[in-house]
Structure formats: structure tokens, C-alpha cells
Amino acid sequence: MGFESTQSSALILTVLSILLIVPSLRKQPGMGVLPSLLMIGLILWQRRDGWQALGLTAPGSWLATIGSSLVFGILIALLSVMVVEPLSERLTGAEHDLSALGTIRGNLRATLTWIAAAWLMAAALEEIVFRGFMMREFVRLLGTGAAANLLNILITSMVFGLAHWYQSCAGALSTGMVSLALGALFIWNEFQLWLLILTHGVIDTVGLLLIYSGWDERLKNVLFRPHGSGVDAGARSE
Q: Are 80 and 174 in contact (CB under 8 A)?
């Protein structure tokens, strides 16, 4: 890869990161995704690349891919609720800001609406942007050696986390940590995207259903007890 091409990839990744992060810092969730998709579409058109350039080739077995996404998605969702989210709150001293979700607790209709939106906006569009394009663009920039792959995962996960800053600094940290797992899964899956889209959708579906049912708070307190002791702490968690 020539120096000019390397410069181009670095500039593209920088501009894309700004488009994704700035709206989140301004508490405007999702506002950077559509401009980013437009930019990606123009780049693919200029390069005469198809959707295959994003890793959107059909998997060898849809059944195996769907089954794997269920396993990975449920596992990551449960680890996120039970370990990653409470740990990020303790490290940052902040709570997750879920106000963007509205009042979905106990509201099945709102929950189903958010699940549908999550599959489109998060599972599909975010994976196309962060894994399908950004991580593959980092390959153009850095290659696929062990150190390059590690740097790829770390930088894209940092951008992914900051792009969720509207959920508070704790939310940015926890989503960045989940992105580490998704980035590693993307590389393990040889930069093919369908497994990531389906896994992301499962993660969000499980997470939203846990919030709807109130089980997110119960699971969060399994390993990380609320501050306080005895009956008082238990009463607060309820």
C-alpha cells in the first residue's frame, strides 16, 4: 500500500470518528450514523467496491451463523449486565443514562418498538459502520498482524464507546468494552459481517427484554452488591 493510500485511510478514519463522536458528546444519539453511512457509500462508489467490501458476503451456513449468534449474543449480553456495566459504574462513579430509551420498563409495546429499532439502527447500521467499514479500513492502513489487529480492536472500540457517551461516561466505557468482544469476534470470523450483525441484534434484544422485565437490576446485583448492607441495600435494589 502506497503512502498516499495510507494517508487517505487515516484521514477517512479520522473524519468518520469525528462524525460519530461529536453528536454523542452533544447528547444527540444516532445523529452521526446516517452521515457516516453517506460518507461510506460515497467512498465505496469512488472505489467501485460493492457490499462485499464490508464483509457482507453470505456465510457458508446460515443455520450455523444464526446458532453462533444466539450463543455469542446471549453470553455477551449477560456478561455485560452482570459484570461490564456494574464494573464500569464503579470505575467511573457514574450511572448508565438510559433516558434515551424512554419508559420501556413494564411497557411491552415500547420494548418491541425499541427492539425493532435496535435491529435496524444498532445491529445493522452500527455494525456496517464500525466493524464492516472502520475495522476493514484499519486493515488497509495497518494490515492484519497480531499487533495491528490488537490496535484495530482497541481504537475502533474507543470510538464505539465515545459514540455512546450520551449514555454517560459509564455507558461509554461499558459499550467500549463490549465492542472489544465484538471486534475480536469480527477478526475471528475473518472479517465477515453477518455473524456480527446477528450477534449485535441478539445482545440488544436480550438487554432490552431484561430492562423491560426488571431483571437487569437483579442480575447486576448478583456479583456486584449495591453499596450499603443488609436489608437497606436489598430494599433499594427493589
A: yes
Q: How confident is the model at residue 229 (pLDDT cuts 50, 70, 90)?
A: very low
pTM: predicted TM-score of the whole model, two decimal places:
0.89
Please report, as a single letter, which amino acid is at residue 226. Answer: P
How many CB atoms neighbour CB 40 within 10 A?
20
CB atoms within 10 A of CB 169: 19
C-alpha–C-alpha distance, residues 203 and 72, integer Å = 8
Nearest-angstrom CA–CA distance, 208 and 216: 9
Q: Which three cell numbers stand for residue 73?
A: 449474543
Q: Which of 61, 64, 24, 27 is nearest to 164 (CA)?
A: 24
Q: Are 173 and 160 in contact (CB under 8 A)?
A: no
Grid cell locating 38: 453517506
Q: Which three cell numbers stand for residue 179?
A: 465492542
The helix/strand/coil state of 128 is: helix
Query: Cα(first)–Cα(last) distance of the chain, in Å?
Result: 58
| Beta-carbon count within 10 A of 16 CB | 22
**C-alpha span between 181 and 79 (Å, rounded):** 11
Domain regions of the chain by residue span: 3-237
CA distances from 84 to 43, 141, 224 (A): 35, 30, 10
| Residue type at position 4 | E
| Model confidence pLDDT, tens digit, residues 160-175 | 999 999 999 999 999 9
Alpha carbons 22 and 162: distance in angstroms, whole number: 9
Q: Where are the alpha helices (DSSP H) in 32-167?
A: 33-47, 62-79, 85-92, 108-117, 136-142, 146-162
